[in-house]
Design goal:
heterodimer, A: alpha+beta, CPE0013-like fold, 2 domains, five-stranded mixed sheet, 31% strand, elongated, B: alpha/beta, FAD/NAD(P)-binding domain, seven-stranded mixed sheet, five-stranded parallel sheet, 28 strands, 36% strand
């Protein structure tokens, strides 16, 4: 039996996964259906939502100054879970990307990142004053 | 000095303030939000990690996404918000609440209102609060300050990090710093259990192989100009094991050692503060000891989920609205803490209305039962698979549950 803590939501359910002889998994301890999905995925193909920031650039290509009211970083996120073992590779890719202001929540940063079906998008709308 | 008049003023434009303002507006009252920062959203704007909004939006959002979805509700209703505005004083004048504040655009302002909702949030405890001995080099930050530096300002505060305290912000920062290319050497927690949410051990520590030292105390910080390391001493049976102390070299120390509701303004206004929560004493309507002044969110008591903050703030907004319309509870029943409960919120129940009660456990316990007792007799109970102090509990007490309450009745909530 494998024990996991569900990370889908802040409830943090303590899950137990029994894998039968035929490879069939039985999940207990979950308080909702997402817990069962999480347990299966965590055993077979662990994924994480990745949240990171990219450098913000003004329309003229310069970075917002220290006295500016604009943030110097733009929060970005994977829309869904991203394969855990490839996260360092994804972060390296995001380090090389800047987001030009103004920007909108949901704007595409990296479509189908690293050949997966997971998009990286902007997580905060930022207007120019 | 500019003078303004509103039915209600909401102090603080974070999740709590926005939710309370929307509620007041939807009951037809004029409302103004006063916010110190450049934008609405409060602390959510620097919490770029996901996990917000599962209850509120049935979706897993990042902090800025949650804040901006909420801000859209505020904007859709044309609720006014005065940004970059710092409130200096709240007092009662000629039967009104007078809020004195300043902003670069307007200078000094005096805003008169019949009701005020306090939604100022909380502050981080710092090194001075927990008295860590040692030198005072650069490189010691509260976790939330480091979070702001990394996520908004774009600076990495150090490379070799130790985190003191296992609160959620510390755990989230352990992952954030690791993803930013830093090495997080340890998380040190004085208590025998985690202070943050359980799921954060998995995704913030285990995923990165960061060791968690429970029942350990940081007994020294070394370094002249910059932090060079810390000394960690194990605690066994309540005693410091000096001979087992060890050093961890690092250049950065992040503190995640608790939050304190930000009540300077409330105190100055003469509002009574509860020692158990560091927030205002409130009645069944979340009204403080200053009539017409309500409190919600982290200024009232520190929550672990923004969804609970929003739920509570809506209630405060709705209560403030009905107070403005002249409703007063006919009577209130005293609510007190029973066995294994650190605090209950609020401290009074209204037998005519549905009461939402929040509480925190004093203990870690499996298969617990939460009991509501009216003058000693159990009137409601709920089974809980697992409780721990870091996870807030809630319960609804309906009028029918306490219909038998008399004038001097006492309701107690206990965990058995």
């Amino acid at each position: 039996m494998k024990e996991l803590i569900c990370i889908t939501c802040p409830m943090g359910c303590h899950l137990a996964i029994d894998t039968g002889a035929n490879g069939e998994m039985k999940v207990t301890g979950n308080r909702c259906v997402r817990g069962e999905q999480y347990a299966r995925e965590e055993v077979l193909n662990p994924k994480r939502v990745v949240t990171f920031t990219c450098a913000a650039l003004l329309p003229d290509g310069s970075a917002p100054g220290v006295s500016s009211n604009l943030p110097r970083r733009v929060p970005v996120r994977t829309r869904t879970g991203f394969p855990k073992e490839r996260i360092p590779e994804l972060l390296d890719a995001l380090r090389g990307i800047s987001v030009r202001l103004p920007t909108e929540r949901g704007a595409m940063v990296l479509p189908k990142a690293l050949g997966t079906d997971v998009d990286v998008v902007v997580a905060r709308s930022i207007a120019l004053e | 000095m500019k003078q303004l008049n509103y039915d209600a003023v909401v102090i603080g434009g974070g999740a709590a303030g926005m939710a309370a303002a929307v509620e007041l507006d939807s009951h037809g009252h004029s409302v103004l939000i006063l916010e110190r920062e450049d934008s609405l959203g409060g602390i959510l704007m620097q919490c770029i990690h996901n996990g917000f909004g599962l209850i509120e939006f049935n979706e897993e959002l990042t902090g800025p996404e949650f804040a901006q979805r909420f801000e859209a509700k505020v904007r859709a209703k044309n609720i006014q918000a005065s940004l970059k505005t710092t409130v200096l004083d709240l007092r009662e004048e000629n039967g009104f609440k007078a809020v004195y504040c300043v902003s670069p655009a307007e200078g000094m302002m005096r805003i008169e209102a019949r009701a005020v909702v306090l939604a100022m949030g909380c502050r981080e405890r710092n090194r001075g609060n927990i008295r860590i001995p040692g030198t005072r080099p650069a490189g010691v930050y509260t976790a939330g300050l480091a979070q702001r530096l990394v996520n908004i300002e774009g600076y990495i505060p150090g490379k070799d990090v130790v985190i003191i305290g296992s609160g959620d912000i510390g755990l989230i920062m352990a992952r954030r710093m690791s993803w930013s290319g830093c090495k997080v050497h340890a998380v040190i927690e004085i208590l025998p259990y985690l202070s943050g949410l359980t799921r954060n051990i998995v995704q913030c520590l285990n995923d990165f192989g960061i060791p968690l030292y429970l029942s350990h105390l940081v007994t020294d910080i070394y370094g002249k100009d910059r932090v060079e390391g810390i000394e960690v001493t194990p605690i066994e049976s309540g005693a410091l094991m000096r001979e087992k102390a060890f050093k961890i070299p690092c250049d950065t120390v992040l503190l995640s050692v608790g939050l304190v509701p930000e009540n300077e303004l409330s105190r100055n206004a003469g509002i009574e503060i509860q020692p158990t929560t560091n927030g205002p004493w409130v009645d069944s309507a979340l009204m403080t000891t200053l009539p017409g002044v309500f409190a919600c969110g982290n200024v009232l008591h520190v929550h672990d989920l923004v969804d609970y903050v929003v739920e509570e703030a809506r209630r405060a907004g709705a209560n403030a609205a009905s107070w403005l319309s002249g409703y007063r509870p006919a009577r209130e029943i005293r609510l007190k803490t029973g066995a294994n409960i650190r605090y209950v919120m609020p401290m009074r129940l209204n037998p005519e209305r549905e009461n939402r009660v929040y509480m925190r456990s004093l203990v870690v316990k499996n298969n617990a039962r939460l009991e509501v007792r009216l003058d000693g007799a159990v009137v409601k109970s709920r089974k809980l698979a697992h409780v721990q102090p870091s996870e807030m509990l809630s319960l609804t007490v309906a009028p029918a549950d306490i219909a038998a309450a008399g004038r001097d009745s006492v309701i107690e909530i206990a965990l058995v």
